[in-house]
Design brief:
Elements: H1 12-22, E1 26-28, E2 35-37, H2 39-58, E3 62-63, E4 69-71, H3 72-75, H4 79-85, E5 90-94, E6 97-99, E7 106-108, E8 113-120, H5 125-135, E9 144-153, E10 167-177, H6 180-200, E11 207-210, E12 222-229, E13 235-245, H7 247-251, E14 255-257, E15 263-265, E16 267-274, H8 276-285, E17 302-306, H9 311-330, E18 335-337, H10 345-355, E19 359-363, H11 365-370, E20 372-377, E21 383-387, H12 391-416, E22 418-420, H13 424-432, E23 437-441, H14 446-456, E24 459-464, E25 472-473, E26 480-481, E27 484-488
Parallel strand pairs: 3-9, 17-18, 17-19, 22-23
Antiparallel strand pairs: 1-2, 4-8, 5-8, 6-7, 9-10, 10-16, 11-12, 11-24, 12-13, 13-16, 14-15, 19-20, 20-21, 23-27, 24-27, 25-26
Length: 491
């Protein structure tokens, strides 16, 4: 099975697509640019969703749902917002089809044209803030802390499964606050939630920071992001949190009576992550043998594969495996027993290696005699013989070790592929050759940022939160700079 995957060194893009398809995560759709998320891929998304949902609720947020369709007029109320999304919008103009009188098939019924065209949700700020207007009258109604799990449509011309599709799944938080400080704290809180999730659950190191003005979300005063480095040296924006100021409140006239008895506009945030995180998981950890999943997000953490020649041997193995699975289930480990009789063990081994199951346990007649099992870990492909009597404790420790090893390996990769440069020639050389993250001085102007992007295809991923003030000169213009920006070519 592994031979069916293009190697990373040969063609990284094809390697990625091979894993998505052959690991059974997703498939192409009859609708151009859209994807079908298969059961195994959706199971990974459910694990991501479940943990993030817990984290959101622990920070006081509630789930709700808002319409898929947004009146076109709503988008004209916030100028930068409509400018940012105009080219990506799918528009509904009619509500009925009819048989063509010429017998040529089904056509749009021109008598069923909508009075106002509807936008298929690319993001929900406009319809949510139109709703908040009727929910908020005084400071006693604030804060509003709402999240929704939904799908959105952004009409992408160049698509790639999970990373950039016309329709994708995500969550979007939309909060309303009485003061600027509360809203800023909320935006910062949620980018930290995303960073914690990426590091602790995805085993993926990320850099948190503030976006440049050119890279901000359309309609935001400030955008914070987490940036991850993939194995090909390109960056992936893995999550964003936006301080929206009072822009949307003013656009939709959302005012409230503050604690001092004066009318004021509400302060806002929005934040989100999407099924792009599955693409990040693939590119952060997988290898030329297939998918590698961190145990905390693997739908199944342990798979048992019996080695037998007769039905009697299989029955004896199955009885022992049943006991072992019960022991693992009792300590919260998810398992699967593959006793399919029409596939040989070697095929099964390759299949679960391809699918990225963290641990594979093989058990045969000799293992029954010795009271042992053979345990193989997916991250290093190492195998060892373990006593079945102490399997539960061993597996718990091994899952933790795999999770930590994946993070440590990715963190070391990030460190080795982060370069500090002091000249534009050095910058261009690193971007064209080594790739990865590049820390460089920038004069803070969008004009210089555009020059760098045009000449190198590298963009400012963020201004890292943890970067210290440092006097320097912009690598392009030589103008004074007090802080380095994080650059990279990106997905």
């Amino acid at each position: 099975m592994a031979k069916e995957i293009t190697s990373r060194n040969e063609n990284y893009s094809q390697w990625y697509n091979d894993i998505v398809i052959k690991a059974g995560l997703a498939d192409y759709s009859a609708v151009r640019g859209c994807m079908i998320i298969k059961p195994y891929g959706y199971a990974v998304w459910e694990k991501i969703q479940a943990q993030l949902d817990r984290m959101f609720k622990e920070t006081g947020h509630q789930n709700a749902y808002f319409p898929l369709f947004i009146p076109k007029s709503f988008f004209s109320r916030e100028a930068s917002h409509v400018e940012g999304f105009a080219k990506e919008c799918a528009v509904v103009t009619h509500y009925r089809l009819k048989n063509d009188a010429s017998g040529m098939g089904i056509v749009v019924d021109e008598d069923a044209k909508l009075e106002e065209e509807l936008i298929v949700r690319p993001t929900s700020e406009t319809i949510i803030w139109n709703t908040y207007k009727s929910w908020i009258q005084s400071y006693r109604d604030l804060p509003i802390l709402i999240n929704q799990w939904a799908n959105v449509v952004r009409w992408e011309m160049r698509t790639r499964l999970f990373l950039r599709t016309t329709e994708f799944l995500w969550q979007e938080g939309h909060t309303a606050h009485a003061t600027r400080q509360e809203a800023v704290e909320e935006a910062e809180r949620m980018i930290n939630v995303y960073a914690q999730f990426a590091r602790e659950w995805m085993a993926m190191p990320v850099i948190m920071g503030r976006k440049s003005e050119a890279e901000r979300f359309a309609g935001a005063v400030d955008t914070y992001s987490i940036e991850a480095l993939m194995q090909d040296g390109k960056a992936l924006q893995a999550g964003t949190s936006h301080f929206l100021g009072q822009n949307f409140a003013k656009a939709f006239d959302v005012k409230f009576l503050n604690s001092e008895g004066a009318l004021d506009y509400v302060w806002a945030t929005s934040w989100g992550v999407s099924t792009r995180l599955i693409g990040a998981l693939i590119m952060a950890h997988s290898d030329d043998n297939g998918l590698v999943l961190p145990p905390k997000l693997a739908p199944t953490q342990v798979v048992f594969v019996p080695i037998y020649k007769s039905r009697e041997e299989l029955d004896r193995i199955s009885s022992v495996v049943s006991q072992l699975r019960n022991e693992l289930h009792a300590v919260g480990v998810t398992t699967h027993y593959d006793d399919r009789d029409n596939y040989k063990p070697g095929f099964k081994f390759a299949e679960y290696e391809m699918k990225g199951f963290p641990i594979r346990i093989a058990i045969g007649p000799k293992d029954l005699e010795n009271g042992t099992v053979e345990v193989a870990r997916r991250d290093t492909l190492q195998k060892q013989i373990v006593s079945s009597n102490s399997l539960g404790k061993f597996i718990i420790g091994l899952l933790d070790d795999i999770q930590n090893n994946l993070f440590s390996k990715a963190l070391e990769f990030q460190r080795q592929n982060t370069t500090v440069v002091n000249s534009y020639d050095e910058f261009k050389s690193v971007i064209a050759g080594k790739g990865g993250f590049v820390l460089a001085h920038w004069d803070g102007t969008p004009e210089t940022e555009a020059i760098i992007k045009d000449e190198t295809k590298a963009t400012i991923r963020c201004i890292p939160f943890d970067s210290k003030p440092e006097e320097g000169k912009c690598i392009v213009t030589g103008k004074p700079s007090m802080q380095r920006a994080l650059f990279a070519q990106a997905y």
